[in-house]
Amino acid sequence: MTAAGAAGGRGTGRNLVVVAVTLAAALALPALLALAFATPAGRAWGDSVAHAVVSWEHGPWKVLRGGLKWITPPAVAVTVLVTLGWAWRTGRRRAAVLGLVLGAGAFLTVEAIKLGLVPFPDGGAGLSRMLSGHVAMVAGGALGVIVAAAPGRRRVTTVVAWLLLTGTCLGIIVSRWHDTGDVVVALAIGIGWALLGRVVTMTVGRPVHQARQARMARQARPQARTVLVGVVAGLCALGAWLLVSVGQAATTSSPTQTLVASALAIIAATLVLCLAAEATGRAAEQLGPSPTNRLTTPATSRRATSRRTEHP
User: Fold this and answer.
1) d(C-alpha 168, C-alpha 171), whole Å
2) Hey, which of 30-34, 57-61, 286-290 has the most confident mean pLDDT?
3) How many CA atoms lie within 13 A of 178 on its CB side?
4) Is residue 159 part of a domain?
5) By the number of CB atoms within 10 A of the CB, which of 87, 89, 199, 212 ranks highest?
6) If pLDDT is split at 50, 70 and 90, which confidence band does 210 have?
7) Could you give the angle at the alpha carbon of 98 between the alpha carbons of 113 and 29, nearest 5°?
8) Residue 301 lies in a domain
9) How many C-beta neighbours within 10 Å does residue 119 have?
């Protein structure tokens, strides 16, 4: 066997290991979090947060509830349709289809679990029936938009999507529609779909030109900014766990403490979801050109026609 063949075999083996680990994480993360929130400590966490926000249920917070109920669904639908439509129109059809499948899959999986159509472990706490559909909708929309966003605008799109998703999750808890477990597990299902999209990009696609492939590989490497965001997400998750565990050990139920822990947990989950979506979107650009990977706008058509007219 040649050195190139041996290196290719090792590369294929490493790729299969990465695919297997990513797939296992996508399937295991939501279930493990659901079981964690079904423990007595997880239930006490949810009860304490509900107690902390009970006085915010009335007054100005009703405006927040109305906005989440009536404004969020059409806003998410319009944003997703415009983004996917633009990706399709500009020839980035694989990105549009992948964004649609991942976003719809994240949302419909949560709804199917709530209806009992998909078995899901919840430790007997009934959490599977209480998952937040609003969080699933916004998370699915953010996932689809980030994956299908134009490469030059994906970073800005990711930041905006993260802010809106985090705000929605915090607003739902403040409005007392759901507790922390309902929100975080719904986000974990979105993370699972983002990881599944990454598996697709690692296993499917047509080869592209060698020079272009090398350039895309350099662009897709983890940057210091991405690593920093991952570290921040990990620290937020660790802080949430420490706040809850310290409170349990001290047998003190501080509503402020558990509310801060919920905010940190949500920030960590939304960061991971948006980071995974951005990585999937970057990797989707390496799948090669779509069957009609040309920008067929009226302006380009007119320019092409004029060139043919001037140079017969």
Assistant:
1) 5
2) 30-34
3) 28
4) yes
5) 87
6) very low
7) 40
8) no
9) 7
What's the pLDDT at 57? 63
Q: List, in order, residues 6 or more apart from 35 with CB less than 8 Å away.
A: 121, 122, 123
- CB-based burial, 6-23: b 16+ in 10 Å, e otherwise: eeeeeeeeeeeeeeeebb
Residue type, 76: V
User: 133: exposed, middle or buried (C-beta count within 10 Å: 0-12, 13-18, 19+)?
Assistant: middle
Segments forming the whole domain that contains residue 132: 14-288
Residue scoring higher pLDDT (237 or 225): 237
Domain count, the chain: 1
3-state secondary structure of 146: helix
HSE on the CB side for 202, CA within 13 Å?
21
| 3-class SS of residue 289 | coil
Predicted model pTM: 0.79
Contact indicator for 275, 197 with CB cutoff of 8 Å: no
How far, in Å, CA of 295 to CA of 91, rounded?
A: 6
Q: What is the mean pLDDT of residues 227-242?
A: 70
Asked if residue 8 belongs to a domain, the reply is no
Q: What is the mean pLDDT of the chain?
A: 77
Which of 32-41, 86-95, 229-238: highest mean pLDDT?
A: 86-95
Q: State whether the Cα torsion 76-158-106-231 is positive or negative.
A: negative
- Of the listed ranges 123-132, 197-206, 222-231, 298-307, the one predicted with least confidence: 298-307
| Domain membership flag for residue 299 | no
